[in-house]
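Design request, tokens follow.
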């Protein structure tokens, strides 16, 4: 799957703005986030897309909103109609993992109820660290077949199946074939995005 270069450039610009606004050098942000200085440099130049884990570590270190980095026009209030074209929906690819994630929820919903579209290559995966206590994910398979692991529990899903599972444990979604799914992440407290 191709990386959306407009999103990569926009994210690179927003991350650099956030870093410089806080007076941080690349080295200082690397130490705060755990993301290497060379990777930070590549991300800020738009030469590389961050993984979900790296993006999460960067947003925590910078104290910025995860989805807000991707949507500069977001407003806390929902307009009567807010039409996002497919090409304008924030998306990023898990490098080397065969999973593209489209953020469908509004930036104001981060840490509350988040909505994502997941598109997997055959053999692709999305592996996540535990979210906040009480977090639950609701996964509906639109096409293909997926397996989900939450802690030690595992389930296989086919087209049309829905699974609800704890996301406050280490969890993973794996594709057995090309697949597409909708993921809703419901947080009880705090804000730990996908």
């Amino acid at each position: 799957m191709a990386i959306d270069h407009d999103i990569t450039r926009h994210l690179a610009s927003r991350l650099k703005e956030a870093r410089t606004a806080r007076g941080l050098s690349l080295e200082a942000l690397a130490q705060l986030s755990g993301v290497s200085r060379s990777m930070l440099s590549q991300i800020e130049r738009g030469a590389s897309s961050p993984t979900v884990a790296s993006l999460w570590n960067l947003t925590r270190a910078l104290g910025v909103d995860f989805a807000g980095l991707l949507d500069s026009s977001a407003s806390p209030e929902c307009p009567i109609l807010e039409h996002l074209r497919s090409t304008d929906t924030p998306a990023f690819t898990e490098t080397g993992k065969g999973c593209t994630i489209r953020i469908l929820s509004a930036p104001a919903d981060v840490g509350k109820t988040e909505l994502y579209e997941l598109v997997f290559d055959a053999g692709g995966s999305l592996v996540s660290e535990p979210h906040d206590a009480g977090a639950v994910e609701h996964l509906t398979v639109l096409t293909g077949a997926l397996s989900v692991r939450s802690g030690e529990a595992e389930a296989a899903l086919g087209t049309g199946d829905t699974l609800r599972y704890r996301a406050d444990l280490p969890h993973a979604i794996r594709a057995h074939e090309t697949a597409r799914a909708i993921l809703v992440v419901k947080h009880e407290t705090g804000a730990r995005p996908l």
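Comment from the thread starter after seeing the answer: thanks! Strands lie at 91-94, 99-103, 113-120, 125-128, 136-143, 146-150, 153-157, 162-166, 171-175, 179-186.
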